[in-house]
Amino acid sequence: MGPQQPENELSNSIWIRALTLLVAGFAILSVFEQAATRAQDATAVVSAATQHPAEAPFIAENDAAMNKMMKGMDVKPTGDIDADFAAMMIPHHQGAIDMALSELRYGKNEQLRRIAQEIIVEQQQEINAMHLALGQPLPPDAPAPTQVFSNQVTSGQVTSSQSPTTMPDHAMSGHAAMPHDGMSMMPMK
Questions:
Q1: 20 to 30 Å CA-CA from 183: which of 11, 20, 28, 74?
Q2: Exposure of 84 in the CB half-sphere (CA atoms within 13 A)
Q3: What's the CA dihedral at 84, 25, 32, 27 to 10 degrees?
Q4: Which of 94, 82, 96 is nearest to 133 (CA)?
């Protein structure tokens, strides 16, 4: 039995090395696939902006918001499920806010603009609730994103190529918040 034991150890070592190389190969392949997907996405954005030049600023803002959101959601697990969940959801909610701001800047449909306003309010509330649930301090008080944009307009910081849109003070009165993901619309079992 003694002579077989080193042979088994050698066989196990070869298998471990082979599996390690296989996993590394898949990881490298994944990186290349992600890079190819990003290149395809960038090409699609440029193509859409070329086909619809009037929509180019909206397309560019949404693309930037999506890229920022996806990068922010790429969280390495820490061993704390709750913290990891919040770390991924906060950029997701911020992405929804950023996309809703684009709708307010460029959109014309009043119903969609109202929904965008509701998304901004609700998603910011949920971001704050996640920080509080984890015992984290809230970010310092700041103007609402639409107010910041409005202040830039009045101070001359916005160029003529930007299309400012602000939220009227009465925009939220009488409207119930509607989650952007539709979860509250799902029947309870």
A1: 74
A2: 8
A3: 0
A4: 82
